[in-house]
Protein: NADH:ubiquinone reductase (non-electrogenic)
Organism: Zhouia amylolytica AD3
Amino acid sequence: MNIPKTSTPRIVIIGGGFAGISLAKKLSKKDVQVVMLDRHNYHTFQPLLYQVSTGALEPDSIAYPIRKILSQYRNFYFRLADVEEVLPEQKKVKTDIGELSYDYLVIATGSKTNYYGNQSIKENGMAMKTIPQSLNLRSLILENFEQALLTDSIDEQDMLMNFVIVGAGPTGVELAGALAEIKKGILPKDYPDLDTRRVQINLIQASDRVLQEMSPVASKKAEQFLEKLGVHVWKNVLVTGYDGETVSTKSDLSFKTATLIWSAGVMGATVKGMNAEDLIVKGNRIRVNQYNQVDGYEDIFAVGDIAAMSTEKFPDGHPMMAQPAIQQGKHLGINLERLLSNKPMKPFNYFDKGSMATIGRNKAVVDLPNFKFQGVFAWFVWMFIHLFFLIGFRNRMVVFINWAYNYIRFDREARLIIRPYKKST
Amino acid sequence: MNIPKTSTPRIVIIGGGFAGISLAKKLSKKDVQVVMLDRHNYHTFQPLLYQVSTGALEPDSIAYPIRKILSQYRNFYFRLADVEEVLPEQKKVKTDIGELSYDYLVIATGSKTNYYGNQSIKENGMAMKTIPQSLNLRSLILENFEQALLTDSIDEQDMLMNFVIVGAGPTGVELAGALAEIKKGILPKDYPDLDTRRVQINLIQASDRVLQEMSPVASKKAEQFLEKLGVHVWKNVLVTGYDGETVSTKSDLSFKTATLIWSAGVMGATVKGMNAEDLIVKGNRIRVNQYNQVDGYEDIFAVGDIAAMSTEKFPDGHPMMAQPAIQQGKHLGINLERLLSNKPMKPFNYFDKGSMATIGRNKAVVDLPNFKFQGVFAWFVWMFIHLFFLIGFRNRMVVFINWAYNYIRFDREARLIIRPYKKST
């Protein structure tokens, strides 16, 4: 890989997500060599992917070149690589561009879509965990309407204009709300020769409330917001399969649709190597101790979604969200420095800053540790926080302009089918 | 295609480029039915494609949904379709989504890359006429540097870091200048472990000057600007082939490169049908009379790049650029209205507003009919004009923000490999 061997310890970070980037930043100006490996050359701001799918934002504004983040620091190396295996005995990682030795290894590979073994959904459904996936979904949504124009069959039109979203976590709820706003604000203008009142948005949740990780009051209010926007919310419904036409459930209920979007779960994106059987716990995550050290290894750490640190409050590990990842990345940076200066590491403590979700224009729900609120103010808070956490001044400006424009004009202009989805498959 | 047959005449426009869109706008509020067919659902602002390839702009900011342009007008229909054949005897067009009858047909299909029959260049070279092509080029440029990091072979590195651009028209010149700026401002920061001083940009022109459609003073100044930026300009060099590694020329000169960008010519993007043999003239364009009427047809017109209207000043047709297309589209709108009210049509007169090209930061050349200037002021004029002609307020704002940011920070942040190019082929 052509990375010079120096006398300073080499820390290899796999993954440039929230955890990996905040760790890398923390290690800047320290006397270590840092090598970051990622299969993309950019960091993705995942909480806004649904806005790419629904034409509100360009993909480039929610992504940021990893090299640009790291270029300010000395002794940092980035390689565009797919990690194939960790070889702990040799202290090496095997990748598609060669092998690399490490002194310390940090696994920050994040999560991927969890289909819970359901092959039919994996094959026929759409996921939304990466920018290419979000762009595919954007293309598909628009292609559906173009196709609906061409048929006289009411059944076929209804199928094309029915969007079934499985999983009412933040992603599912935000996507359902955005689709409802498109139905109301954009479709009647763009498709005057189509009866877009017949567009359906069905949001299906296996448990008894939406946003079940949030407070009951947030769930209740979010559901009201969704219903106000015309989203059909189905609770206690377990989806069992999708053959490309029909979504089947455990009960008699079924849905005819050309588009199933699967946002019902994520699982750790593990790497091969180490003693996987013993280490992988619920959610396909790697068990770590309170220092984010992988069980049984002194020199391998895991942070973010992939890491399952069992605590009293979170016996199965912290929520798979941006905040724990950022905090663990930062904290590990401090611990690695302590380790290198032979100081004892400090246990990680999660500071829950709260959580939030936006349903639509002026409609959001926010749970702070001691204060819960919903509505217009929550929506502004949501926007402010998301702008703040976006990396890059230019991205913030461009996203802000887009949001301001969309707000004033009730519009979203990035509705371009740049890479057709159907034709390419 | 489910387009209602009304009593008003139906005008079918093939192509949503500059010519098609300006015609459609002119026909708004007229008592006609307008159907626009395009294989993309967006209009592309082609003059800025090179900025997408070089990471200065997002693709979404130089494209605009066609439905959004037309949604303000009544009696307008858009269909996402590939036109396969024109059947003039039946007054119909055949497309991949069915047949459509017309009362008047307007061919505004624009142009495509002209390889002059050179198969090796077509297969191994990159073109830059569409947004997907520009994104492929952006990915390839970045992938080359990632790959260069992985090899110890100086020869292979040099090949990966050598960019050969064939054709020094506006596209070639602007792309060469942008690459030179990336070499200077971005590569040393992004690739500190690569000797990016060895990056080469070779711009090859078959004739004896760059920008040969412009004035000699513009050509001379543009060449000086290019050389100042470190671009190697090769004149009177005829490229004969490219096998993926070596660019061969008519002389002994050859170039080892992983990237050949072909901007040496365009040709009309004709459609099948009509009496092609008699109608197609130099540049693969369709011969039209002074009313943009296709030779031999009362009810078929052609506008923009595809139309060859022979005039005293332009015996082979107007330049294949935005201005003639926009003017012909508008003019045909007036003529169609006259035709429908049984008034005689008016001949088209091209008003040459001048031409311009930008080479880099503070470096542009402008030829106005009575005034030619170069440098900083020309560069501001170039930016202002391009912002003005972009469709959509949001696009203008976003492009302006990006340009302002890039200007102040000497940066271009859209350097993301969203769809890998090499891996997908």
Summary: Chain A touches chain B through 54 residues (CB under 8 Å). Residues 322-340 of chain A form the longest helix (19 residues). The first strand of chain A starts at residue 10 and ends at 14. Chain A is about 30% helix and 25% strand.
